[in-house]
Design goal:
alpha/beta; TIM Barrel; eight-stranded mixed beta sheet; 30% helix
Length: 234
């Protein structure tokens, strides 16, 4: 499968990542990616940058080493109402937003509450991707999630980090198999991302792509294959 992009990565600005913007772009070039998205954690995550960081990203070049660079944010979903931790006046300055559930910012709820949290976050017009909706610590109604993603024109992420053997998220592979089954049924597109927190992990999609191949997931529903597919969302 052709794979030309990675839209979920973090630099030292996120506080618990270990490479600079330039190092991440250089790694993307080495991996022969055409598009790199850098998405620092939003302010409710401990140790990350402030809103001012996101407001000043206009000064950073959007192409380097032949790689197109997008700047977004990984928002924290804070409750079942889908509230997130950056206001509209900041989000409108970014290329896109990922919305995710993280233990430090959302304690978890019932399957109904977690599903509602994701779906309400999708209604935010700046949210283009739901990040790692695979963690078994947050049970989800995957059929409802997939149908809502199609309705609200939001991409569901297949997160390469979640599939690594040392990842702290629980039951990710089996959860992705269920999610992808519904994505095929409802023709809901996905995006494969690395969630890299160091330059060596940029484009680390091997386990995610292997799972898509195992599931016989159609390439037409994977936006990584073509920039035009991505442009329909971002």
């Amino acid at each position: 499968m052709r794979d030309i992009m990675d839209l979920h990565t973090h630099t030292i600005a996120s506080g618990h990542a270990y490479s600079t913007i330039n190092e991440m772009i250089a790694a993307a070039k080495e991996k022969q990616l055409k598009i790199l998205g850098i998405t620092e954690h939003a302010p409710e995550m401990a140790g990350t940058c402030s809103a001012m960081y996101f407001m000043n990203l206009k000064v950073v070049p959007r192409e380097k080493y032949g790689v197109k660079v997008l700047f977004g944010v990984e928002l924290n979903i804070l409750n079942a109402d889908g509230a997130v931790d950056l206001p509209e006046y900041v989000l409108q300055k970014l290329d896109y937003a990922i919305a995710s559930l993280h233990m430090p910012c959302y304690p978890g709820g019932t399957k109904e509450e977690n599903t509602r949290a994701y779906i309400n976050a999708m209604k935010n017009p700046y949210v283009k991707i739901i990040g790692h909706p695979d963690d078994g610590r947050y049970p989800v109604d995957f059929e409802a999630l997939v149908k809502a993603a199609k309705e609200h024109h939001v991409l569901l992420e297949v997160n390469g980090s979640s599939l690594q053997p040392d990842c702290f998220r629980q039951n990710s592979r089996e959860n992705y198999k269920e999610m992808l089954k519904y994505c095929m049924e409802y023709e809901t597109p996905v995006i494969v991302d690395s969630d890299a927190h160091v330059d060596a992990h940029v484009g680390r999609h091997d386990l995610a792509l292997a799972l898509l191949e195992e599931m016989k997931f159609p390439e037409r529903l994977v936006v990584n294959t073509d920039e035009e597919l991505l442009n329909a969302y971002i």
